[in-house]
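Summary for the funding panel

The consortium committed to producing paired sequence-structure records for every protein in the target list. Below we show the first two records in order, beginning with the earlier of the two.
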Amino acid sequence: MPPVPSNEHSPRIILCHQTHHDRTGTPISLLPLLTEPSSQISVTHIIVAAIHLNSAPGDITLNNDPPSSPQNDTLWSEVAILQDCGISVLGMLGGAAKGTFTRLDCHDEGQFEARYTPLRDMLRKFRFDGIDLDVEEEMSLNGVIRLVDRLKADFGEGFMVTMAPVATALQGKRHLSGFDYEALEVLRGKSIDWYNVQFYNNWGSLADYGEIVGRGWSPEKIVAGVLTHPRNGHGWVGTDYLGRSLRLLREVYPRLGGLMGWEYFNAITKEEGMGWQWAEWMKEAIVG
């Protein structure tokens, strides 16, 4: 059954889904998130990655192929089923592959429209509930504000806009995005639903959560991004240790924003590839 709406604060349980096929080319199904949990569905949001704007205007790929490629048919049909069951689905723009945000961060409005309009149309076509902006290259503050403003103007306030900074970006330290996130929060905080903060890959750990909150960030907007498998990057911690850390964070910050796992396909609990169980275990740790 889908999550039951509540007026009480409930931390988000988010899984990123970038690896869409196994080594044989077989689609990796999202449906176990609905069919396998022992009680309520645990995951609240899925982030489908990664959308790239390539050199030619209108050339958009989801990972290495056009979003409308037949090999993505299973993905889109399952996304619709998840949405029908109450799980919100966002698209992740950018990431480690550079170029997307450089192309959107142009002074010429005509060039911006040539890049942005096909992106807008793609988000509409595949009925995303929101977008996660993973800016891992230099971008100006004015450039990201223009992008956020257009997304909200075109899709409305109900369309989620999130961001995925590395942890140091919210501590006033060196980071990847170029612009000042604290300035962005002051100027457009009402338009940004939350931050999927990367506490891994040598950019920080959950021990830094308190320092971020101490700088004035609302815990409700800070989702702790972690790795679900040691092969997914540097800084993975086991589920038992992670669970204890999350329980402690929730005790200190009752309105903790939630947890994001990178990524779904190989999330490890007792065995690999049980993303639904990872979400269930993490919900138990963070929500109880």
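The next record, for a separate protein in the list, is shown here:
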Amino acid sequence: GRGRVGLPRSGRVPDGSTGTRPEPASLAAARRPLAARLSPLLERKFRDSLKLSRKPKLPFEAPPNVHCLAAPYDSIDGLANLLETNVIHTVISTLNPPDPEVQNTQDDLVKAAAKSSTVKRFIPSEWGIDYSIDDERLPLPWKTLKQQTIAELEKHPDLEYTMVFNGYFMDYFGMPHCQSYMPFEPPYIDIPSGKAAIPGSGNDKVTFTYTKDGAKFVRKLVESPTKWPTHSLIAGDVVTLNEVVEAAQEARGVIFDVVYDPLEDLRDGKVNEIPAYVAIYDYVPKEFWLSMMAGFGVAMVTGVFVFEGELLNEKYPEIDTTKMCDFIKTQWTGR
């Protein structure tokens, strides 16, 4: 199935009043690894959880009080009725990948949320960077699909929403040793093989966030009674890819074979391959993957992966985020 929905059942009234009431939050999650990370954190805060799926069984291990219900993703009215019947207040989408059919499903979920009488908040599936940035800095053809959902959200002013930007997930650089639900899709640096193909000079700053840290910030957003900003920025750590390579070399005690892809090549969709990409081609078309690596490479070189504005880190300083080089050393020392 393409979706999962989590349903916590208690919390503060979001309009800032002093009373309390049931405040369910739904988790629509085709990106099953991210849903798996968010699920237990939401469960810890709220009394009960439900997840809605095309199939009545969750594809990942969930807390014992998380239950799964079948969701009619092919019917806006059916979805709206399901959200309303279960008194769902907040929808968190992790629908993925950037595919027209999946994106249309998320758009229908927005329409259903707006149609229901109970849903007041919506987090669309962004989980990375601002996909509205121009092609000069972010040449990804499928980013228009992301913009499509935001355009739909803008049609419903009574539905509060925020886009969560967290940079690149740190998990990819700790696999297979770190605790993570993400697939093995390391970008640019293949630590096990000791090879790297770095975009640009490798000295450009990039934001990385470990999924378990990102999930903690999302829980804070769900709990918050204040109005959401349209952009919620998270920065687990900000380092260069050269610093990541250096940390990996030190941890493993080997010198990596490193090549650098100039910006001109990246703009032309050209990148050097690393061994880890070969396994990815089994389920992601090679041309699509390499073009995505080139597009994200351009974004890294042009500063898209460094956020401007107030970070959630500043609003919630009690959340201690994982630092990239420490993470690399923890996962790879002696391996």
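Regarding this second record: Residues 100-115 form the longest helix (16 residues). Residues 1-22, 44-48 have pLDDT under 50 and may be disordered.
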